[in-house]
Amino acid sequence: MKIGITGANGFVGAALCRYFYKKGHEIIAIGSRENPSQHLLKIAKYIQADITGTIAEIDADVCIHTAAFSSDTDNYKSLILGNVEGTLNVVEAAKNCRLFVHISSSSVYQFKTHPVMENEASIQSDLSDYGETKLLAEDIVELDIPDHQKRLILRPRAIYGIGDRVLLPRLLSLVKGKFLLCPFKKNTQSSLTHVDNIGYAIELFIEQKDQPQLQIFNITDEKPYILRELALECTSAVEKRKLVPLSFPASLMKVILLLNSNSGIANTISKPVLRSIRNNSVLDISRIKKELKYKPS
To answer: Cβ distance 228 to 182 under 8 Å?
Structure first.
């Protein structure tokens, strides 16, 4: 099967290129970078394209759209251009593909005390600019689906794995000497999504005999994690020494962010990130388990 993947130079896009190449598929990697990694070129045909402009037709059976603007420092105009208009351009370029997969985000939710379900995403919620533009991008994917095409929207939470450029670096920036600075509440839980579980879910979607025209799923690992325990375990493993957790109140973290301190912490943890690590952020994955028979590693 021929699979086109946008955002192929990014963490998720590159990981999915490797995942489906190992499964024996022909990969068309689409990215904006002029000189992609040699590792990517060994496993894929590379097409340079900027999703914020017109894209040539994607000649593939499946299009997986991972490209997005996701930096905490991107302004709203840039996010609209990359996430909303960019998605519109990719949908148009992939109009002849049999299957279309859109990688969205758990940022489309305002998390609550219970695991959130797919129908709880709302533009009326207090979303970040990124979350709002990802939900608007979903609206585009849901509209005007050609009769010959089936579409899937996946909403992962905090994607990690080989090639991760965000989560582990952020954790490691909280290591100060023998201490791990812990803005996490003691029992705060969060869902996380290993990037290979995204590949696995897409594989299940492709193999379905009778796909509905549109499916929307939360996607995570099997169970949520306790952030404080996970952060301490991961950083201690990387540092190869037992770190001492050093807790501090949310009010202090907010002051640091407000002052835009150059300590490295404020530059690493934005307000949306702070909100997500101090409160439970758990996704309900019962729907994907039922409909796709999803059994995550």
So the answer is: yes
